[in-house]
Write a structure and sequence with these properties.
Length: about 450
């Protein structure tokens, strides 16, 4: 089954299939459950044998199945698709891949070791096992993904197929959101994240998936790759991803997608023969003007739908700041994340070496007690101390390596763009979903000629 999708012989068929899957999922979770387990069962041979193409096929299984995490949550497919399936399945499949001797990324083991001491610390006395899993499995999966993916060679065609597998479940999410959202005339647009326009689910996670979908559809459309097989349809999907993502009123996911697109624009990933230079980069900026104009017009359209509230939302306005009784500070602009960051830094100052322990920060913060972590950097510092700082610095160091390679080929630029999107996601959704670990892993691949 998965082989048929990756061969991409009928691109329109599979796009239509995932649209239908998203539509049927609004009626019952059983359609998604049936498809999910059908893919797993028909992929058993991939788990049982190795050959010259096994790494790509096994990676395709990881990318595709893990990407259904959000739709599983939205359809309430629990317990058949566990609530945090992306974390658990990614962990199990990465471990299976590593045991199959796909393990080139030694630095991933170093990251894993840096995370271990904080498991045995709990300065709050209130951490349960589920708190440890909730907070730790994300960065653990990042470490394992680096072990599994780093320096693994794939062809340009294989990379394209993997990115397509990442985009198809996002199309199902988009379809679900479109169908489940009420008529815009019946939606009350305020200056906060909108539950209704996110298909009745958490707007932060939906926005992140839609932002990723917008990034991927732009990538396919810009490079004239086949997502649906028709450029006009790919462009329509891109516009729909952007509009629906914007109307969730959750900014992080769409800004992350925009950062990824900006990297692609900067490096002009139209052909694999492209070589970067300052002069060509300037020309690319000029060529990007029509793209920016189109994005601006889409934003204006979505803003009109929201009665002007969308623009206010992206300016950081709240009901309090608009009415004048609340000052627009950085903390207000970033939806209380600055206070969380400050409280985490204070915890790190008091426990500089090993931190307060995994999951303990939310019980010990002064002003943001019991607020779930949204910034992975500050959580690493407060809960893992100096070891968490080393973890994040190593991660950034890997990003610098990608940046230095990004000007060589289009695939290198794409991998760097994926890393940028993944790292930015950790600043508004931490590492609670599959997106950051999986995308950071994918960015570690290397293309062979």
């Amino acid at each position: 089954m998965l082989k048929s999708i990756t061969e991409n012989r009928n691109p329109l068929l599979w796009v239509v299939f995932h649209v239908i899957l998203g539509a049927l999922s609004t009626l019952s979770p059983w359609f998604l459950v049936a498809w999910f387990y059908l893919v797993l069962l028909t992929s058993v041979p991939i788990l049982l044998r190795r050959n010259e193409t096994h790494f790509f096929r096994f990676t395709a299984l990881i990318v595709y199945t893990v990407s259904f995490e959000l739709l599983g949550r939205m359809t309430k497919a629990y317990p058949f698709i566990p609530w945090e399936m992306g974390k658990y399945l990614l962990f199990l499949l990465l471990m299976a891949g590593i045991l199959m001797r796909y393990r080139h990324g030694t630095v991933g083991w170093i990251l894993l070791v840096l995370l271990l001491p904080a498991i045995f610390i709990d300065e709050s006395g209130q951490v349960w096992f589920k708190n440890v899993i909730f907070n730790l499995l994300g960065p653990v999966n990042v470490a394992l993904a680096i072990v599994y993916f780093k320096n693994q060679p794939v062809s340009a065609q294989e990379l394209k197929s993997l990115l397509r597998l990442l985009a198809l479940p996002a199309i199902s999410v988009l379809t679900f959101v479109v169908i489940k959202t009420p008529d815009f005339e019946n939606v009350e647009f305020t200056l906060g994240a909108n539950f209704e326009t996110a298909g009745g689910f958490g707007s932060n996670q939906v926005s992140t998936a839609l932002g990723l979908g917008a990034f991927l559809t732009y990538l396919f459309w810009k490079n004239k790759w086949q997502l649906s097989g028709y450029r006009w349809l790919d462009l329509g999907l891109l516009i729909l991803f952007i509009i629906r993502g914007l109307l969730t009123f959750s900014r992080g996911g769409m800004i992350g997608g925009a950062f990824g697109v900006l990297v692609l624009v900067f490096y002009q990933t139209a052909t694999s023969e492209y070589r970067w230079s300052p002069q060509k980069a300037f020309l690319n900026v000029i060529k990007a003007v029509p793209v920016v104009l189109v994005f601006f017009l889409i934003f204006v359209y979505a803003n009109n739908i929201s009665g002007g509230n969308l623009a206010l939302r992206y300016q950081g306005e709240t009901p309090g700041t608009v009415s004048g009784y609340k000052e627009k500070t950085l903390n207000v602009f970033f939806s209380n994340r600055v206070n969380v960051f400050i409280d985490d830094i204070e915890l790190w100052r008091n426990h500089p070496v090993l931190g307060v322990g995994v999951g303990a920060s939310m019980y010990l913060r002064d002003d943001t007690r019991r607020v779930a972590p949204h910034l992975e950097l500050s959580r690493l510092l407060s809960e893992h101390g100096l070891l968490g700082a080393f973890y994040f610095l190593i991660l950034c160091g890997l990003g610098v390596q990608l940046f230095k390679k990004a000007h060589y080929t289009s695939s290198d630029a794409i991998l760097f763009a994926i890393f940028v999107l993944a790292l930015f996601t950790t600043f508004h959704s931490a590492m609670r979903t599959y997106i950051s670990p999986l995308l950071i892993g994918l960015s570690m691949l290397t293309e062979y000629e």
